[in-house]
């Protein structure tokens, strides 16, 4: 099989795993191919009982179907907790910060529970709720429809929302990082939201676990060289040693710091 087909089918599986389900049309737009091509891919992918078709969509099969966000939030808890503590230690009381979507970012929000008088500008409803327990905080969220089950706001309206504010810190994650250090997402609107936060913040903080190195996603955004601080749980696979060395001044390994 051509490597292009393998890569595309891997991306389809990742998107479905990330979101729980997605339409055939959305996949075609996302991957820049025809709906007929996507349907041929689905003929192959639905053969192993992990995925299923449902009314013009592709979804996780019932046996595999967990709440996608909660599933991600429940993985690598030790690593995410270490990342969160390091990132939260950089945020003082009274700071203004952007907080993006994502399970690792939510861990950082939870680690900020000891901070007071924060101004939080976020499209991550779970993060907003976690930080609402401190009544001295001010929390600003966009309007519109909440995406379920992820409990967040996405789309071009969110880009406009972040454009209206300025912050001292922007805390965000990414779906994947390629060998050249490019940050990858599943949709361009997610890229634009992250770029808007980074542009409007004095300091950018990327929080990721080591599994994001080499993880595929179709939309490319910024680069590690654009980020002020990258907090990761531990060193990535040896194939990314050169990349890690090039960015050593901005890259912090949280679990190493805990020893």
TrEMBL record:
SMART domains: DeoRC, HTH_DEOR. Pfam families: DeoRC, HTH_DeoR. PROSITE patterns: HTH_DEOR_1, HTH_DEOR_2. It comes from Roseovarius phycicola. GO terms for molecular function: DNA binding. Keywords: DNA-binding, Repressor, Transcription, Transcription regulation. It comes from the Bacteria. This is DeoR/GlpR family DNA-binding transcription regulator. Residues 5-60 form the HTH deoR-type domain. InterPro entries: Carb_Metab_HTH_regulators, DeoR-like_C, DeoR_HTH, NagB/RpiA_transferase-like, Tscrpt_reg_HTH_DeoR_CS, WH-like_DNA-bd_sf, WH_DNA-bd_sf.
């Amino acid at each position: 099989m051509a490597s292009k087909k393998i890569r595309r089918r891997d991306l389809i599986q990742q998107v479905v795993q990330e979101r729980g389900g997605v339409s055939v049309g959305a996949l075609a737009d996302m991957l820049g191919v025809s709906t007929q091509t996507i349907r041929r891919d689905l003929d192959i992918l639905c053969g192993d009982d992990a995925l299923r078709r449902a009314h013009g969509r592709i979804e996780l099969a019932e046996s595999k179907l967990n709440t996608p966000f909660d599933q991600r939030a429940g993985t690598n808890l030790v690593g995410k907790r270490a990342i969160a503590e390091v990132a939260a230690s950089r945020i003082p009381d009274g700071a203004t910060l952007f907080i993006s979507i994502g399970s690792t970012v939510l861990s950082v929000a939870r680690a900020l529970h000891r901070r007071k008088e924060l101004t939080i500008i976020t499209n991550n409803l779970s993060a907003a709720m976690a930080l609402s327990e401190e009544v001295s905080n001010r929390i600003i969220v966009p309007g519109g429809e909440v995406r379920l089950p992820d409990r967040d706001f996405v789309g071009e309206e969110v880009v406009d929302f972040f454009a209206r504010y300025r912050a001292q810190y922007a805390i965000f994650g990414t779906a994947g990082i390629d060998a050249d250090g490019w940050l990858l997402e599943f949709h361009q609107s997610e890229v634009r939201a992250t770029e808007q936060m980074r542009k409007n913040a004095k300091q950018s903080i990327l929080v990721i676990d080591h599994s994001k190195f080499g993880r595929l996603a179709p939309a490319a955004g910024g680069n590690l060289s654009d980020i002020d601080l990258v907090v990761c749980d531990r060193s990535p696979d040896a194939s990314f040693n050169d990349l890690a060395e090039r960015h050593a001044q901005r890259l912090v390994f949280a679990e190493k710091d805990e020893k």
